[in-house]
Amino acid sequence: VLLAALLHAGWNAIVKLGGDKLLTTILVTGWAAALSVLVLPWLPLPAPASWPWLAASALLQVGYYMLVARAYHVADMSLSYPLMRGSAPLLVALASSLVFGEHLPAGSWAGIAMVSVGILCMAGAGNRRNLQLPLFIALVIATYTVVDAQGARLSGHPLSYTLWLFLLSGLPLPLWALVTRRTQLQAYFRDNWARGLIGGVGTTTSYGIALWAMTLAPVAIIAALRETSILFALLISAIVLKERVSRRRLLAAVLIVLGVVLLRLG
Question: CB 155: neighbour CB atoms within 10 A?
Answer without folding.
Answer: 27
